Amino acid sequence: MATAKAKAAEKGGPAGAPVPRRLMAAATRLFAERGYDRTSVQEIVEAAGVTKGALYHYFGSKDDLLHEIYGRLLRLQQERLDAYAGSEAPIEERVREAAADVVVTTIDNLDDAMIFFRSMHQLSPDKQKLVRAERRRYHEGFRALIEEGQKSGVFSTATPADLVVDYHFGSVHHLSSWYRPDGRLTPQEVADHLADLLMRALRP
Amino acid sequence: MATAKAKAAEKGGPAGAPVPRRLMAAATRLFAERGYDRTSVQEIVEAAGVTKGALYHYFGSKDDLLHEIYGRLLRLQQERLDAYAGSEAPIEERVREAAADVVVTTIDNLDDAMIFFRSMHQLSPDKQKLVRAERRRYHEGFRALIEEGQKSGVFSTATPADLVVDYHFGSVHHLSSWYRPDGRLTPQEVADHLADLLMRALRP
Amino acid sequence: MATAKAKAAEKGGPAGAPVPRRLMAAATRLFAERGYDRTSVQEIVEAAGVTKGALYHYFGSKDDLLHEIYGRLLRLQQERLDAYAGSEAPIEERVREAAADVVVTTIDNLDDAMIFFRSMHQLSPDKQKLVRAERRRYHEGFRALIEEGQKSGVFSTATPADLVVDYHFGSVHHLSSWYRPDGRLTPQEVADHLADLLMRALRP
Amino acid sequence: MATAKAKAAEKGGPAGAPVPRRLMAAATRLFAERGYDRTSVQEIVEAAGVTKGALYHYFGSKDDLLHEIYGRLLRLQQERLDAYAGSEAPIEERVREAAADVVVTTIDNLDDAMIFFRSMHQLSPDKQKLVRAERRRYHEGFRALIEEGQKSGVFSTATPADLVVDYHFGSVHHLSSWYRPDGRLTPQEVADHLADLLMRALRP
DNA sequence: CATGAATGAGTATTCATTCAT
DNA sequence: AATGAATGAATACTCATTCAT
After folding, report:
1. Which of these, A31, A39, A45, A58, lies nearest to A120 by C-alpha position?
2. Per-residue pLDDT tens digits for D123-138
3. What residues of chain C lie within 8 A of the CB of D168, using their CB?
4. Which terminal residue of chain D has fewer beta carbons within 10 Å of its beta carbon, N or C?
5. What CATH number is attached to the domain comprising D178?
6. Minimal CA separation from D4 to chain C, in Å
7. Residue B108: inside a domain, yes or no?
8. Which letter does DSSP use for residue D128 in this model?
9. What is the CA A56 to chain-centroid distance, rounded?
């Protein structure tokens, strides 16, 4: 039975995975499909094969599910940015790799990302504040890299670093509006192109 | 009273402006403030100083108000893009100006833009299809400009034109997430910076 | 039809009476029968022959219905007390009559009274505050009468007037716990007995 | 640890007292604070520092806790009334002392009393019947004392004994609505005043 | 043109209780 | 004796929309 559980849990699938994981998987899929407010708690628990009581046993509110989805994506991206920031590679390389990496991980978690950009404002005000604070931390980490490149002369200083970050992340956010897994380009190709555009824009 | 009307009508304000305009103004403000689904029809009619009957006299549904907001913004931007596309100026200049202009008009209509990016998926499927088609037309108009520059050799062909357009428009969509009217930069300055980043990225 | 309405409205009956009155009548009966919290909004609207939407069109919440029931009783009793307070009769007579009258009107509105004493604490805190303030005003009006009698020497001063009022009103509150319309004594007989007990206790 | 237990057990406190007692103490406090229906089983077990399983091990239902609170108070008051009834003192003295005593014990157990008068109707019908029967027994015991006084001529027969009992017990029930431990009068003073009012009302 | 009372299906959330361990 | 995950039915409340006037 332990092995059955382990097997089914691979993707948070409905069979024998732990209930909270099943709920998160169902919520993520449904929020991405029809949006947060168009998804009822009833639909989530039906998709997860549990009852409402079980959901509220693990999550305080529908809002909590949304917040957890954000947390999952934010933690992942922050972790990866930290790795690039702390690397020994030349700044130009670190920025290019970080810029491409965030594209790849966004595409790999496109449902989470779509939910993020569409539904953040439906979070309760206090949770929204928390998310914004974490988001800002991420933004500032990236900005620090850009500024480092500008100070060392490998990047143009024509544009304030803040704007550069917003420019790049606008395109990252936008991915969930147009990227289709069955499209012409692989995630890595898209990532390389977008990172390339950023690097070219930063040439002195 | 005629003067009072004229005065209040400046911004679609509540006093004596035509009822449909007052409804649109109220809906736009409220949708931007609290989101489409968090705004009730009751709140809209109260803010507009009319009754529900009046709203349903002019608009078929709440959904229609949203669709109308989209139409207003899309028509404006398409019009302006067409002007740049049809101009006699060198291609580089036309792209730079179009790229900057869409930033300025987006900031000038930041409420509309915020609603656009947050609430498009809350439109009814058929209206969503309509909007997407118009959006695609706009996208293709812009892509044609990029391709013209690539063919004539003034823009690098390293990145497919489609991706370039998505890159730039990602940052335009993103504006409503970070731009604040009381911020450091004027709309025109932001527009110049973002257009500059695009042009630098396109350098051969 | 206007006459039909008028006829049916006599007791707030369900037939043609105005919807708010029908709702109040249904709520009063059900709250008295099974208590506030054991009565669902669904049951109220069914008993009134309307839909939930109609209830919430006229009342902001279930709580509002309760508050309105209190208001109705409080206004009635305050009005009558004011009449006795302002009368020209000798103080002893005024107190006896007021003391008896509150018993009669309590019995005449026994459902309201029962709801009052059982369910007041289930009101929202702010509404509870309002009710308590009005109740205190009533209490103080009655206390003033007692004190007037004490000062003029017709009532004993052995007991503080406050306690006297609480003593009498305890028995008034208690009425809904034991009085049955089909019992041995008429409302007026009960009232006379209780007023008599008060007057005897107040003899110097 | 044994001493810690002993200390905390003084008031049925949470530390080391037996689990059922801790549950009763927590339930009593919470029911008095926010009412029976506004208190969840979860809150009770948290306040008692145990789990739901433990509660249902000792009590059949939430309802049982309420019933037990009633039983505790009723047993105490019946016991004390029986003592006065069986005493050798003159009837006037026995009534005065019983009337005062029930006031003191009500104030000493004000939480129990408040729960009693507010929440009796929230008991299940059959338990309610039981409680009412015990209450009636108490009422009749007190009435017998009044009647004894009336027959022996020391009390007026102007008022039926039943009504006299209801008059006095109305004020006892009412205590939990106004008595505050930090008020002007001690429990004994209040008791003396209320007993005095009763005795004065009964003067022939 | 405009009203606003009324609808009815829908929403998130709560909670006493059970039961496998 | 005790846990705590899970149930499932019930709850108050919302809201876009309709329609007789």
Report:
1. A31
2. 988 899 999 999 999 9
3. 171
4. N
5. 1.10.357.10
6. 37
7. yes
8. H
9. 25
